[in-house]
Amino acid sequence: MPELLNFDVAIIGGGIAGVSVARELSQYNVNVVIERHGDIGLESTSTNHNLVCQGGDALSFRPGTLHAELNVKSIPLWPRLADELGFPLKRVGGLWLIRDKADFRRYLRLYSRAFKSSLEPNAPYYIPEGSFQPLEFVDRKRLLDMEPYVTPNALGALYDPNLCITDPVKVAKALAENAKANGVEFLLNQEVTRIERQGITYSIYTRQGLVIKSTFVVNASGIEVDRIAEMVNARNFSIVPLKGTLTDFDEEVGRLISHEVHVLPRMEDMPHVRAVLPNIYGLARSGIYLELTYRSDRVIREEAINHNIKVAKELFPEIPFEKHIVKSFVGFMAYTNADTGWHDFVVDIPDYVPNWVNIVLGPAGVSASPMLGKKVVELLMQSGLKLEPKKGFDPRARKGVSS
Amino acid sequence: MRAPMHLTLDIARKMIDAMIRYAQDNRVMPGSFAVVDEGGHVIAAERRDDGLPATFDIAIDKAWTAATMKTSARVLEVITRGQGWRLNVKYNGRLTIIPGSVPVVSGNRVIGGIGHSGGSAEEDEAIAQAGLSAFYREDHIDFTGEDMLRSLRKVADAVINHVTGNKLRPVAITIVDEWGWPVLIYRMDGAPYGYIEVSRDKAWTAAAFKIPTDSVADKVGVNYGVGWNERLVTTAGGIPFNLRARYSQ
Ligand SMILES: Cc1cc2nc3c(=O)[nH]c(=O)nc-3n(C[C@H](O)[C@H](O)[C@H](O)COP(=O)(O)OP(=O)(O)OC[C@H]3O[C@@H](n4cnc5c(N)ncnc54)[C@H](O)[C@@H]3O)c2cc1C
């Protein structure tokens, strides 16, 4: 007889999405996180640029999308979260290099849109003064002061002072440990293989033999989100796996770079991202070489590494990156609207499947996670989950999660 | 393994299966699905049970538009500022700037197109995107029901098995309903695209006269099509059958 467990809310996936929801819910209900690996945040959450507080620029964050909304609204939440949970958060700021007039014109548009989307009181995602620094243009002289090794071809840059770096795995673990201290269960090494729905209760079966019964399910399974949704006919979105390769360089290089520096992609650069940034441990990171492919295709390709080195050298021509490579690695993003390129998050309840929330993040999902947790709790409440605040919720308490 | 760089009949059928499943899960009215190659020529097209006959060619035209414009209709709609329908007079009305038309991109190249017709614009687009998503899935997504379509697929599979088993030249297969409207078109890998329309003509002729196409000249007494009906063909290859459908190869 398999073991039977009962919960209000079962969260499938212990990535940043799953644990953000778990932590938010730990203020109220009995819930559980089911994760196939033996630890938290081992998939996309561990293989990314480590940027948070994104959303200041309105090119990659088109106003009107959930992608922009959750990111912009998360900016003021990050410092408090870092303080409560004690994970590293460092404000580095982002520089969009201006190479020519065409770049400048594009940035001007971007700049005014950034204001429209957040700073004016009647803007769609107004965030209070003080928690968001306005973007500004810096000239070449100031740019070189800020980033001495940057390419002298740059005429200047658009500067987003809000951008921070962190260690997303540490964030995810801290959220998980805090959730656990506040009563959330973690079932690690449990891979969901089948789900049955009886009216409004779900039975979740794992390969390892558990049966978890739950009234609500949050599908936060990252790149597997479509497969999990299909188990109960709850797929109301489509994704393609977007594979990204990143390359890390050692501290010698890392200490020469202090901002996230990138250039706008042009037609010939498509679809890759051209950015270099420091990470929280003093390394430098370059990428992203992007490919649409099968999600099982985890091969690190030579052309991807070469691309990442080329990008780094283009932005910092004086630095001999090729001699300082530490490693390259791949990660996957669930990309929606691949046909148009207008990616957006999916955070919703399908029309025909009750008590079920799908979460598709993709690019900038870590950045958006503080607001994501709140959004999902709101959705669950709307669909009938009774939230009774737990006495003694402690936003700082910690309890070990990994097995 | 890397995702494929070309479309094949098997991949196209897998994409359609996933689209049917998506349409069912999201309760979209039955319609038609098409997957075309980079030249816009059909590889596979199918109509769900009770799908409106007219949706079949709309789905194909949408897929053709995505493949030959190398863009999603959603983008064309935006860049033509909603005036895209005016272009519809081109190409005998084939250009279809209505959502539900998505290019298949692999290795930074457009290798084909996907079209769906039968739902709202949003639904059509979501279904075509489900087709693209299936292209990037190694597993197969199945659907339930669609008994008629499933039986017709068996007929088409019998033809394909016959051709491959006997090492014949690859063919195009069309199965039409009793009114001559297509329910299924498959083009085997390696069959030149010219055969698609020939097989459609034969299927139509067999359905319209309820006799094999090569007896039409004898029994009906006509041997020309152009002028009164472009679909009429009197060479062998189209045969009627009962299951409320006809096919030809
Ligand atoms: C190259 C690259 C760079 C990026 N850069 C940034 C950046 O700078 N800033 C940023 O904010 N975002 C960035 N992202 C995006 C970010 O990494 C993702 O949005 C985020 O990690 C997604 O989190 P998630 O929880 O949805 O997915 P995941 O972290 O993948 O978590 C999903 C979890 O579900 C589990 N799971 C899946 N299937 C099952 C199952 N059947 N049973 C049990 N458990 C299951 C998995 O094991 C996994 O732990 C980047 C992504 C990539 C690929």
Q: Low-confidence spans of chain A: pLDDT under 50, at least 5 residues?
A: none
Strand content of chain B: 15-25%
What is the helix fraction of residues of chain B, given as a range?
A: 25-40%
**Broad CATH class of the domain at 3-46 and 169-239 and 342-382 in chain A:** Alpha Beta
Can you write the helix and strand succession of chain B as a string? HEEHHEEHHEEHHEE
Largest interface, C-beta closer than 8 angstroms, per-chain residues:
A-B, 30 and 30 residues
Number of domains of chain B: 2
Q: SSE order of chain A, as H and E?
A: EHEEHHEEHEHEEHEEEEHEHEEEHEEEH
Distance between the termini of chain A: 24 Å
Ligand list: flavin-adenine dinucleotide
- The average pLDDT of chain B is 92
- The number of strands of chain B is 8
The fraction of residues in strands of chain A falls at: 25-35%
What profile does the largest beta sheet of chain A have? 8 strands, mixed
General form of chain B: globular
Q: Give me the side-by-side strand order of the main sheet of chain B.
A: 3-4-1-2-6-5-8-7
As for the CATH topology of the domain at 3-46 and 169-239 and 342-382 in chain A, it is FAD/NAD(P)-binding domain
In CATH, the architecture of the largest domain in chain B is 2-Layer Sandwich
Can you put this structure into words, describing what you see?
Chain A is built from 10 helices and 19 strands. Chain A is of the alpha+beta class and 403 residues long. Among the domains of chain A are: 3-46 and 169-239 and 342-382, FAD/NAD(P)-binding domain (3-Layer(bba) Sandwich); 240-335, D-Amino Acid Oxidase, subunit A, domain 2 (D-Amino Acid Oxidase, Chain A, domain 2). In chain A, strands 1, 2, 9, 10, 11, 12, 18 and 19 form an 8-stranded mixed β-sheet that branches. Chain A has an 8-stranded mixed β-sheet with strand order 6-7-5-14-15-16-13-17, with helices on both faces. The two termini of chain A are 24 Å apart. Chain B has 249 residues and is of the alpha+beta class. Chain B folds into 2 domains: 9-135, Haem-degrading domain (Beta-Lactamase, 2-Layer Sandwich); 147-248, 2-Layer Sandwich (Beta-Lactamase), CATH 3.30.450.150. Chain B is 37% helix and 19% strand. Chain B has 7 helices and 8 strands; from the N terminus they run H-E-E-H-H-E-E-H-H-E-E-H-H-E-E. Chain B has helices at residues 9-25, 55-69, 73-79, 121-135, 147-165, 194-209, 216-219; strands at 32-37, 42-47, 101-106, 109-117, 172-177, 182-187, 238-241, 245-248. In chain B, strands 3-4-1-2-6-5-8-7 form an 8-stranded antiparallel β-sheet, sandwiched between helices. In chain B, strand 5 (172-177) and strand 6 (182-187) form a beta hairpin. The mean pLDDT of chain B is 92. Classes of the chains: A alpha+beta (403), B alpha+beta (249). Chain A binds chain B through residues 226-227, 230, 233-241, 270-271, 292-297, 299, 336-340, 342, 350-352, and chain B through 1-3, 21-22, 24-27, 66, 72, 74-75, 102-103, 105-106, 108, 126, 128-130, 132-133, 135-139, 141. Bound molecules: flavin-adenine dinucleotide. Flavin-adenine dinucleotide (FAD) binds at residues 12-18, 34-37, 41-45, 47-52, 191-192, 220-224, 228, 244, 246, 288, 331-333, 361-367 of chain A.
